[in-house]
Design a protein that fits this description.
Structural class: alpha/beta
Number of strands: 23
């Protein structure tokens, strides 16, 4: 049986019920053809349904699935909030409706039939049974993976993870949290781990040029917290909505900086999105930063929520391209920087996954997509970076970004490898912005007052100065995103937001920054 936590994870004033299972290949049903699945983390009792027209009757669309599940003594339920949101998204014009139908995926909750107590069905086991008994139905289904940040928290052997929020300490000693020798150094303050630093440079946006249209970099992450560079800045786009509903969830970097009452520490990944935003600001001061909160302060999200946010972002982008009013250009994005992902259970399923279909459409609509390749020193594909590769002119490709050490010529030991690593950028001991907060650790030495000021050693988690160093491919990806945005800012036709013009500019930026041309 997969390992299942029996508790909820407190996070930023709300509870994220992971309901998660760790798919362990030695005890899990195999894939069709006998292929052994690779470990993945997924929502235990939910499946994602793809391919159903959004404007149709959701309940009627589920009839084939429900009939197949009934043979297994199970039933499926669409969460009420999911049905309401699908109905709202479907109110666009014909092209938006067709686009939504092509990329939409929504979760269904699996439940046992009957009123008596029963353990929640395991989505992986159910999916494998349906692949045998109802293959046409199973072809529309996939796991609802747990997405995590690619931020430099290594804890696994063989490229996998050593736990989420401390609840999984190891399975058969395979996931023991140690990692290969030398990798732990990158998590140590002073060796690349997060720690406060002083940056003696002004906000780069003070030297930014004023453009007729500024390139927009979308950042699905933890959010953007309080910081002098971002507070009330006209090119920091918060609370972005589509169809009358906010895109994404709570901003962990705004709400999650209050230390935990028991441990005195903030969430493990609080500040991740702010750090990413600071790297884009440094590399392209002209860029507008569009924050899309999807990760919690502990660096996790459910795939269904990530897909929902990205789908709304894509629809908003295309609506902006179609707008007759020039103000509609404000809805268009130019670069999508993804420092998130998951390890899939099957490499063969990655190209047809809901996320793959969605990012393909971003590329067709002229959006450059960069993705961090992961920090586990493994060739295992980390989705969405696993989708990296050149495409034809009709779509911009996903670019997978690995991390370099500060020397700029060596690859970080933790960086994943493989054909999906398109290029490398600095990602170790890199300096950027963090929310101005102070957590519970204290200086090792307090020596009294000096001219009215307290004399101490460095407080290891006092980020009141607003800057830190950190390491991870999470931070290499936005470095490239900033380079691409800076190249776009030089274009003389940036106001033309047609998909054709955006694709042409995107390929020009890829040639200049990555050396790629259409396949």
């Amino acid at each position: 049986m997969p390992v299942t936590p029996s508790r909820q994870v407190p996070d930023d004033g709300r509870s994220l019920a992971l309901r998660a299972s760790l798919l362990h290949p030695s005890v899990s049903p195999r894939l069709p053809g006998g292929e052994e699945p690779t470990p993945t983390l997924y929502v235990r009792n939910r499946l994602l349904v793809s391919g159903a027209p959004v404007g149709g009757d959701v309940e009627a669309q589920l009839d084939p699935l429900r009939a197949a599940l009934a043979e297994l003594g199970l039933q499926a339920r669409v969460p009420a909030d999911v049905a309401r949101r699908r109905e709202r998204l479907s109110r666009g014009g014909r092209r938006l409706q067709e686009l939504l139908d092509a990329v939409s995926a929504y979760p269904v909750v699996l439940e046992a039939v009957g009123d008596g107590p029963a353990p929640p069905p395991d989505a992986w086991v159910v999916l494998q049974r349906l692949r045998i008994t109802a293959p046409e139905v199973a072809a529309t289904l996939s796991l609802d993976h747990i997405v995590r940040s690619a931020d430099g928290y290594w804890g696994g052997v063989d490229g996998y993870w050593g736990g989420v929020d401390g609840f999984w300490g190891g399975v058969g000693a395979r996931w023991d949290g140690t990692g290969p020798r030398g990798m732990a150094e990158y998590g140590t303050p002073g060796r690349g781990g997060r720690m406060p630093v002083t940056l003696g440079l002004p906000d780069p946006s003070t030297r930014a040029r004023v453009l007729a249209r500024h390139p927009v970099v979308a950042l699905p992450d933890t959010g953007i917290g309080r910081h002098p560079w971002f507070d009330d800045h006209p090119r920091v786009l918060r609370d972005v909505a589509y169809a009358g509903q906010l895109i994404g969830g709570p901003d962990a970097d705004l709400a999650g900086t209050r230390p935990d009452a028991l441990t005195g520490q903030v969430g493990r990944d609080v500040g991740h999105g702010t750090f990413v935003a600071g790297l884009v600001r440094q590399g392209c001061p002209e860029a507008s930063l569009l924050t899309v909160p999807v990760l919690t302060g502990t660096g996790v999200a459910e795939e269904a929520d990530v897909l929902d946010a990205l789908t709304a972002l894509l629809l908003r982008h295309v609506e902006g391209q179609q707008a007759a009013d020039p103000a509609g250009r404000d809805q268009v994005i130019d670069v999508l920087s993804l420092s998130i992902g998951y390890y899939p259970e099957s490499v063969a399923d990655v190209p047809t996954s809901p996320l793959a279909r969605l990012l393909r459409r971003f590329g067709e609509e002229g959006v450059l997509v960069v993705a961090a390749v992961g920090n586990d020193a493994t060739p295992a594909p980390f989705v969405p970076a696993a989708l990296a590769g050149r495409t034809g002119r009709d779509a911009l490709p996903v670019v997978g970004v690995g991390a370099l050490n500060p020397d700029g010529s060596t690859v970080a030991l933790f960086c994943n490898a493989g054909p999906h690593v398109s290029t490398h950028r600095p990602g170790v001991a890199i300096v950027s912005t963090v929310p101005t907060a102070d957590a519970g650790l204290q200086p090792s030495t307090v020596a009294g007052l000096d001219d009215g000021l307290r004399r101490t050693t460095l407080d290891p988690d006092n980020y009141a100065g607003g800057f830190a160093i950190w390491s991870g491919t999470s931070f290499a990806a936005p470095v490239l995103a900033a380079e691409l945005a800076a190249r776009l800012a030089e274009a003389d036709d940036l106001e033309d937001v047609s998909a054709q013009a955006m694709r042409a500019r995107g390929w020009d930026a890829l040639r200049a920054c990555v050396g790629w041309s259409p396949a």
